[in-house]
Q: What sequence folds into this?
């Protein structure tokens, strides 16, 4: 196994971490580094595509390739990166607002498309970077500066949605459980197909409800759960308190990259390919006739 | 007798679903293979059935590549076609068809030649053969090669069995014989010279040229959301995706489409999106990302009239400003607008090298008229196409956004080399990490918006001059109006009028200013506010003296351009 230290970036801009002291994102960073190390991944072969938000700053604090993109858009970009070069390990990373609100449509269709990427959602049930507005997963009754009357919308249930859409791999963890989270992430990364991991983590600055203690008290680990049983997985997914943690659902199926015509005969990444001039010639010849 | 020489414009009109497309396909292919130059273009309504759609086919002794207003031969497949094309009828127009498809009031204005197409079809066995009879009739009028027609029908209907093939050949023969007879009886006279060379030429559409050019230029990833008139490029690419071994993916929306194309480039592939104004509007956020992250991307934008849904199936050059100014913040881009089908092929291929070299969005502007036009051309020279990749192998200290003199930083990709790279849509330092440093922010803005733009401008392609450089009058135009204006100038035959066509629309090379100095400048474009004329003024301080604008969703015709220029000349 390589050392997690390999994933510690040495760039000048990576030193000043912009997260609040005590933020759950630090824990997720450590989980990621350990997962990469335990999987013996090379920094050069890993790409983290992130959206916008505090979670999305991850590419700057970890020594792998990164692309800090736009709010909600990490998934389509990550999908294409994997499709362009399937030998890369690709992670799309963002917060609950990023993945479930602004990027909701992309999440739905990524599940349909099933690229072999890992979607990592830092779910702190609040908007942190924009200072404390409700997110799709904020619990009803929670008052915020922009929902002073208290949130009344039904919270988004990413786990139930993903299972309903027959996603390939669906899991939830709480970053306060380090070892378990590393194991789940390793399985998600190794899983062939779209893996969604919803990671609970506290926002120490803006979410006074869902604290470290709250997550410990209101979650439990699923024991003896068969992730290949979709109905059972769905039942677990709609439990509300305590919230189950672990791998809810696995459905092995062909990935996007496996099905596109580009890789049927030739596995070379797209960037190393040359245009099929002979095929163009054939078409032009046909255009001389009928 | 009505006689047509050198160049005949045939218009077929009918409802969507009536098979006009079939007749158009048979005619253009068979007449081209008979040795005639052909050109075709269509106008259609935004509906699947009904309405009135027309196709113009020009058959000529010499190369024809532009839309003309006049109709020489009209074949109406339903009532309502004549009123729809009323302004295009001349006293010479011959209407070939059923009595029931011609409104009473036109009988005195046209030369009506009644042909009982429907009865003839029924004689063969079914009114389904109507289209083949009509096609046979026109091929007969031109004394086209019946053997070619037979062969075409065999290919087209072969999968449906021998019975269908032989019935279609029978139908075609009936039409063909009638066509010959009409000529022999001197009802219609057609005098068009055949050119043996034409037989071997390529019949290519604007859509196909863009798609093939893209593949020749190394496109291996196309993401799109369907939208007229841009979808054809995706259809063509998807149908050949297996042969080309490329990825063509229809995605959930245009936002996803362009983000995917950006992701593909980031990983070293060559990605493109094909879209129209409304779809491009949704892409502007990601365009800005490409600008900030210095991520190459190629966008084919087939224009149609707006705002909003506008006229979904019609044509306009109204999105130049959209292409110029979309995206927040300041960053460079390249805008190209091919004028001919050949040019669409070469320019689209080159767009990928430009995007790769300069790491900017490259937008190819076409329009409905352009993508739906096709004609025969000798060939495209594949030897002219070069795929120039500008990807570097990274080392341990690799800096994605290294500050350089020309504003271009060597671009690495993940997994190639010892380094890692960080791309970023936030303001960043040379490594790609977020910065809010004053000095760095300024340097990075200057790198992108000044240094890189000037590098691009230095390498910009010059416009094409048609005519003499000392002409008193100079027409300026861009994109799809190229051939219409060329033919109009040939018709006018005035040596004091020249034409400067811009296929490279932005950024404009400074030398252009000298070329336009001291001339009486006539801007011709298809929009309301003369967007290109405004660009010339803004970029180079060039003042246009006269503007010829059209914005009814229909293409400029040669006649309209002739009239407009005549009105300006002394």
A:
């Amino acid at each position: 196994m390589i050392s997690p230290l390999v994933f510690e970036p040495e760039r000048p801009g990576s030193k000043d971490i912009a997260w609040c002291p005590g933020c759950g994102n630090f824990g997720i960073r450590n989980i990621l580094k350990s997962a990469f190390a335990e999987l013996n991944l090379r920094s050069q072969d890993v790409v983290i595509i992130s959206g916008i938000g505090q979670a999305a700053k991850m590419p700057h604090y970890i020594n792998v390739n990164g692309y800090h993109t736009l709010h909600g858009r990490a998934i389509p970009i990550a999908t294409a990166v994997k499709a362009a070069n399937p030998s890369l390990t690709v992670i799309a990373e963002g917060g609950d607002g990023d993945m479930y609100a602004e990027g909701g449509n992309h999440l739905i269709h990524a599940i349909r498309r099933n690229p072999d990427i890992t979607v990592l959602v830092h779910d702190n049930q609040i908007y942190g970077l924009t200072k404390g507005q409700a997110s799709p997963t904020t619990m009803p009754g929670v008052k915020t500066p922009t929902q002073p009357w208290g949130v009344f919308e039904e919270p988004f249930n990413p786990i139930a949605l993903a299972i309903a859409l027959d996603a390939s791999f669906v899991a939830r963890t709480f970053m306060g459980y380090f070892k378990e989270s590393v194991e789940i992430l390793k399985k998600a990364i190794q899983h062939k197909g779209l893996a969604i991991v919803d990671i609970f983590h506290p926002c120490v600055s803006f979410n006074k409800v869902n604290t470290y203690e709250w997550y410990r008290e209101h979650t439990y680990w699923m024991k003896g759960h068969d992730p290949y049983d979709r109905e059972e997985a769905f039942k677990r997914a709609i439990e509300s308190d305590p919230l189950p943690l672990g791998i809810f659902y696995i459905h092995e199926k062909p990935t996007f990259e496996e099905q596109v015509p580009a890789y049927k005969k030739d596995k070379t990444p797209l960037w190393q390919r040359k245009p099929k001039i002979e095929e163009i010639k054939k078409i032009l010849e046909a255009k001389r006739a009928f | 007798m009505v006689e047509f020489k050198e160049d005949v414009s045939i218009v077929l009109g009918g409802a969507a679903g009536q098979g006009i497309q079939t007749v158009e396909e048979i005619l253009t292919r068979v007449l081209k293979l008979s040795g005639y130059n052909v050109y075709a273009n269509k106008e259609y309504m935004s509906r699947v059935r009904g309405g009135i759609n027309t196709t113009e086919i020009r058959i000529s002794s010499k190369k024809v590549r532009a839309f003309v207003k006049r109709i020489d031969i009209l074949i109406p497949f339903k009532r309502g076609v004549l009123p729809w094309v009323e302004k295009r009828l001349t006293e010479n127009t011959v209407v070939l068809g059923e009595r029931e498809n011609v409104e009473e009031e036109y009988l005195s204005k046209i030369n009506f030649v009644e042909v009982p197409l429907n009865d003839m079809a029924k004689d063969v066995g079914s009114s389904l053969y109507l289209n083949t009879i009509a096609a046979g009739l026109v091929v007969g009028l031109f004394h086209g090669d019946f053997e070619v027609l037979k062969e075409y029908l065999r290919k087209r209907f072969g999968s449906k069995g021998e019975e269908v093939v032989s019935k279609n050949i029978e139908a075609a023969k009936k039409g063909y014989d009638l066509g010959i007879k009409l000529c022999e009886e001197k009802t219609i006279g057609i005098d068009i010279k055949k050119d043996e060379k034409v037989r071997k030429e390529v019949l290519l559409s604007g859509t196909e040229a863009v798609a093939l050019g893209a593949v020749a230029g190394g496109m291996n990833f196309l993401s799109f959301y369907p939208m007229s008139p841009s979808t054809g490029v995706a259809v063509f690419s998807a149908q050949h995706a297996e042969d080309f071994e490329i990825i063509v993916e229809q995605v959930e929306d245009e936002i996803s489409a362009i983000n995917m194309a950006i992701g593909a480039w980031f990983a070293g592939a060559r990605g493109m999106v094909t879209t129209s104004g409304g779809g491009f509007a949704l892409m502007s956020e990601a365009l800005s990302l490409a600008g900030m992250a210095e991520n190459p991307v190629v966008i084919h934008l087939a224009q149609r009239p707006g705002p909003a849904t506008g006229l979904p199936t019609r044509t306009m050059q109204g999105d130049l400003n959209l292409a110029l100014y979309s995206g927040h913040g300041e960053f460079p881009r390249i805008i190209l607008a091919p004028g001919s089908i050949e040019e669409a092929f070469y320019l689209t291929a080159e767009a990928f090298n430009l995007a790769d070299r300069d790491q900017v969005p490259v937008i190819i502007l076409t329009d409905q008229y352009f993508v739906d036009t096709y004609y025969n051309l000798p060939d495209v020279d594949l030897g002219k196409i070069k795929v120039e990749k500008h990807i570097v192998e990274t080392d341990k200290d690799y800096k994605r956004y290294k500050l350089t003199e020309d504003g271009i930083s060597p671009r690495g990709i993940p997994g190639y080399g010892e380094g890692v790279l960080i791309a970023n849509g936030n303001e960043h330092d040379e490594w790609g990490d977020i910065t809010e440093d004053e000095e760095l922010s300024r340097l990075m803005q200057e790198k992108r918006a000044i240094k890189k733009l000037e590098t691009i401008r230095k390498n910009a392609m010059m416009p094409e001059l048609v005519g003499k450089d000392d002409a008193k009058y100079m027409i300026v135009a861009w994109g799809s109006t190229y051939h219409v204006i060329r033919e109009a100038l040939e018709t006018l035959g005035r040596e004091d009028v020249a034409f400067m066509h811009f296929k490279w629309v932005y950024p404009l090379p400074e030398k252009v200013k000298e070329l336009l100095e001291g001339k009486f400048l006539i801007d011709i474009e298809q929009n309301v506010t003369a967007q290109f004329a405004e660009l010339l003024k803004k970029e180079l301080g060039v003042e246009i003296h006269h503007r010829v604008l059209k914005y009814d969703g229909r293409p400029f015709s040669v006649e309209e351009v002739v009239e407009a220029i005549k009105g300006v000349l002394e």
Observations:
- The longest strand of chain A covers residues 243-250.
- The mean pLDDT of chain A is 97.
- The longest helix of chain A spans residues 24-38.
- Chain A has ten helices and eight strands.
